[in-house]
Here is the input.
Amino acid sequence: MDLSETWMTVLLVVLMVGLLVANVFLGKRKAEKAPMGKVVSVLSDIRHNQKIVQTFNFHWQTKRFKTGGWRRNSTKITFLPEDLWISLDKIFDLIDDYNQRIDIAKKSRSDSYMAGIDVDRLKAPLDGAAERLREWVQVNMTNPEYAPKRRGLLG
Here is the structure.
């Protein structure tokens, strides 16, 4: 094997790894296109936020709460029961407020700002929303209206 064949092999391996990584990221977004995927994305944000509440420390380097799944999908999941959707909206508005406080603490690099943040107020609403969303997903898992659409071999 000479030098050019070695570089071609390395290039081929790098290209294959790049395609694999792209497929993983695009696959997650593709799953989110189905109505059930949108709900699962919001549920994923809630579960992540529950972990943050449990391990919250009052240091200025604390992680922000996740809101991406809700921001991307809130207008697309209006098929959820209205009271559930409204409670999710209120929870994520509250989370936005907490994220603003965390941002202020990070900018000032001060733990004293973090001491004023009472994340225990989020625990009950997050737990309730997670439970209700889990129940909704279990009930509607086999509902073809919310399932991903079947595609062909390349789609």
Notes: The chain is about 70% helix and 0% strand.
